[in-house]
Structures are given as structure tokens and as C-alpha cells.
Protein 1
Amino acid sequence: MLDFAWSEFLIVALVALVFLGPKELILIFKNLGKWAGKLKAMQRAFMDQVNQASLEIDDDNKKS
């Protein structure tokens, strides 16, 4: 996983604000938020599938 401190994130945000401007920065953060939501939903779906598969394996092992 990426290891960012809050201070580093703040520096990147300030540099982006200077170079992109406030209007474009709002749109970029909005799009990043949408992508983060999609990634989180994909992660949740993947974990649900892994958990379901492990439950099925446990059930099969208990029957044997």
C-alpha cells in the first residue's frame, strides 16, 4: 500500500491548487472520489467472494 503522511498529501494538494486552479482541482477531486468509491466497491465484492468460498470449503470439510 502507498505510504503517504498527511503533510505530504497537503503539499501535493497545494501544488495542484497552484498549477491547476480551484475549479479544475474540484473536478479532479470529485472524479478521484468516484474512482475511490468504485475501487472500494470492487474490493468489498472480492472480499465477499473470498469469504463465501472459504465458508463453502469449511462446510465441505465438516461433511467429510
Protein 2
Amino acid sequence: MWGYPEYVTVAEKKAKAQKKLAQLKKNKKYQNIEPIVIEGRTISKSWWGKAWCKNLESYSDYENRIGRGRSYVKNGFVIDLKMSRGKIESLVQGSGSNPYKCTIQISQLDSKKWDNIKSLTESKFASLQILIDGKFPKELQEVFSMKGKGIFPSPKEIKFDCSCPDWAEMCKHISATLYAVGAKLDSNPELLFLLRGVNMEELISSTISAHKSSILDKATNVKSTRIIDLGNAPLSKLFDIDFKA
């Protein structure tokens, strides 16, 4: 007999999510489970996370649908999220007893686009100096977030699948997963480069190499020795600095 599905309150869903998470943690198969925990009212606090969400919301394909998952990720329903080269996988607790499995395929960044990003970064070497000083310059923000040309994917570069019975083009479990990525980038922005199949360190090293003589000249000045010191550290550390927008 047809009818409306049983209504489940947010509190009940949260309780189910926490119960299922506790169960999965006891399972050896899910030893590395990574739930998304949102503290405060905003999903993302860093520029990277905010830019990821803003990029998705800026496309007409998504703007009216992606909001369905906002409350899901805020309430802790994304109980596992993994990001790898070209793929995002998640477990999202819904109204049922078992979480739904979401798989999102992200196209690798086109080599021409990546070369263009590197070239633009090299031309903004002064901005890289600001980056080294612990700030995220607007010039580099613009390079990374160029619509259709930056590092963030467009809808045509995203394909998704969810095990839920929802026939909508983008269900709330998929949209929750996409928002969860924004939260994930707060703590590890390097994952975005991994997701798009490009090497973050290559970006920094190519910029430094292009201006090697300038760096060496500045190294003669005692005040500039910090540049050389940072050069001995992992380049990825440059992305662990203050990215708060």
C-alpha cells in the first residue's frame, strides 16, 4: 500500500548516526573511519573550504539542489569521508538503519589548465612571498578560483552515485558529501590537489625555480634568510599556514 514515508526527526537521525558510527568503529573494516564534525554554525572556516562550497553554489546546475545536504553535514550525518585521486567516497546516515554509500568521481585537472595555473602563479611571485609570510594573498585566491579555469571542478567534471532510493539528480546524501569536502579542506587543503590529480609541491617548486636568482639575491640580506630556511622544509608546509578568509 502506497503512503508517505515515516517522518524521522533530526534528533532521531543524529542518534542513529552516532550509534552507527560507534558500531562501525568496532568493525576492523572501518578502523580508519573519518566522520565529519562541524563545530559552530559554518561548515567551512578556511579559504579553501569556503571556496570549494562557493564554487559549487555558483553553478546554476547545483545552486537549487546542493542546499539539501547542508543540514545533514552540520548535524554529523556524514559519518565517513575519504578523498583520493579523482574520487570522493562517503557514508551518510539517513532515516534508515544503515548509512547510504556515496561515490563521487571528479575529473582530473586538464594539463593545459594546470600549466596555466602554474604560469599565473609564477607571474605572481611577490604574492608567494606574502604566502611565505603567513598570509593568503588575494592574487593567488583569484588564480585558484577562476571559474572553469582554476583548480575547483565544474558540474560537468563531477559524476556521482548514491545507494539511496531517491531519484533526484542530486540527493541530499550527495550534496551533504560535497559540503563535507569543504569541511575536510579546512584541515588538509592538499587533498584538493590530490583529488584533481595534480602535485601541489610542483606548483610551489616551479614558482621558486622560475625566480631562483631573485631568491639567491635576497638571501644575501640577513632579513631574507627566512626564505632559505623555508626552502629546506617540506613545500607542503606552505599550505599549513593561516588560510582563514
Protein 3
Amino acid sequence: MTALVTGGCGFIGGAIIRRLIAQGVKVVNLDKLTYAATPDSLADLPPDRYRLVVGDICDTALVRTVFETHQPDIVVHCAAETHVDRSIDGPAAFLESNVTGTFTMLDAAREWWAGRKGTQRFVHISTDEVYGSLGPVDPAFTEQTPFAPSSPYAASKAAADHLVRAWGHTYGLPVLTTNCSNNYGPWQFPEKLIPLMILSGVEEREMPVYGHGRNVRDWLHVEDHADAVWTVLQNGVTGQTYNVGGNSELQNIDVVRRICDRLDERAPGAGDRRRLIRHVPDRAGHDARYAVDAGRIRRELGWRPTRSFDRGLAQTVDWYLENTEWWKTIRAQSYDGRRLGVAKDATAIQLATA
């Protein structure tokens, strides 16, 4: 079996590729190698089982050539712009990659697989953010929860989800969609909350927490996510959507405090790192709570997360402590930890309507 994975040098895509290779699948990775790509995470893969093709999923001619050359049996579509703060600063890139890129991949798969027999599956990797925001006691998102995206990022992913379903319904493309909760683990680019807080704590910089820090997220270890995608590839029902969650709802401030405590234990510094926590003005349109009901994938396919958040977080902190060369290069060359997504117009609107 040959899999075409898009965005495989990204955080989630890399974990999925490693899982596929472990299962004996040959993988072709189509990746544009943008700022958040981590090709080092795949450097030890066997060259007879893994190939990287550098290119843009919006390049129709290139995508068609990749299908014709490598003849994939399955597609795992991970490529996307994903950082909410960046989508506030520059939404156009999110529409291009997440909407136009998804359309290009769907249509190329439709053309290539038309009339061909054999295993064909197109798995689209999406997010719980398409469902919007929950109140403190609202039930968790299910696959039937109406879409209500709040950020440009979430809106672009919701549009992509709709395209996937439309190509399945109209053209009979064998599509499946997974909507996952917040991922964490090794190799995550340090603009996201957990790696950003780890590195700030290691360097004993201020650790900025948006607003009151009580925004709630459901945390999923990236390797558990990769296991879920493999389960869906094997046994998922064509046309179905599966929510994938870690069953680990926590307030952001509690996550940051646990990072501080683990760093104090493993890399003692000049004092208790909780002293570094600073509450800063909130993100524009910040969703209050995400919670994922992963009952369907558990009942129907037998998947459930295997890592508790505390164990997974401890392993993640240790990984960043042991791989300083990787993240120090990022700090020096592409992202120094400064805040993104401070939209002046959004702030003005919030103040005017407060």
C-alpha cells in the first residue's frame, strides 16, 4: 500500500507518517516546507519506504503529477495553516492553503481514482475548532454539533470540511474526516502553547498567558492522534466523520503551571518558575472552551487515547530539554517567541463593544 500524505513535515503529519511506516505502508510526503516544517523528525526513515516531494498542494499540475507518478492507494490530507494567532494577522494564507489546497487535493484524487479498483481512502485531518466555543457546562462536541467557527483559521477548516463532504456526496469520493482536539508532543513548532511555555520556562523568560487563563482545551498526545488516524484508515466507514479527543480538559493556566512544576523538577533554575507567568491582553475572539466527545470512534472502531495528560506532558517537557539544538535553531532563525495575532482593529472593536 502507498499513502500520499500532505504536510507530512508538520507536527501532526510527521507523527502520522511514522505510524504508517511502522505498519508497513510506503509513504510519499508532499510538503511545501513552510516555516513550521520539521523534516528532521523524519530523517531516520528508510529511503525505500519514504519519499519527500517538495511542493505546494495548490499547484494543480504538480499534484496531478504526484498522483500519476506514485499511484497512491490512500491520501492523508494534513497540510494546512493552523495557528490561530497567525490567521488573525494574515487570513489570506489560511484560505489559500486550507480551502484552495483541499479543493486541489480532492479533485486530483477524484480524477486519478476514477474507474480504478482497489483500496482508495481520502482521510481529511481537521480540528474541533470548526464547532466554535462551548460554555462551562455545555455538552462536548459530537459529530452532529453544528459548525460555528470563530477564527479565520477555524472558518477555513470548516470550509475544507464542507468540501470534503461535498466531494464524497456528489462524486462518490471515498472520504473520511477526523476532527481532533489540541495536540501536543515532541517536534511541535514553538508558536503553540505547550512548546512556547516550555521554552520560555527553560530560558527563564516571561510566560505569557492570554487573559485570565481559564480558557479550556482538551489535550491529545500527537501519537495517540496518529493511532486514531491509522484506525480510521483501516476500519472507518466511508463518508463518516470521527471526533478524536484526549479526554483531558484543562484550563490554560493549569497547563502552564504543570509545565513550570515539571521544569523545576527536571531543570532547576533560579527559582520557582511560576513566578514567570504573566497575564497579557486576551486574543481577539478567543474561544472559551473546547471539549470533544470521542464516543463514536471508541464505540465503533475501538480506539481510545492511551496516554494520560500528566504522563504525556512530562515526556514532552523532557523531549524539549533533550533536544535543545533543534529548538534553539528555530529561536535564532525563524521564530523568537514573540506574540502574534495582535490585531489592532479587532482590539478596537472589542473595546467599543465592551
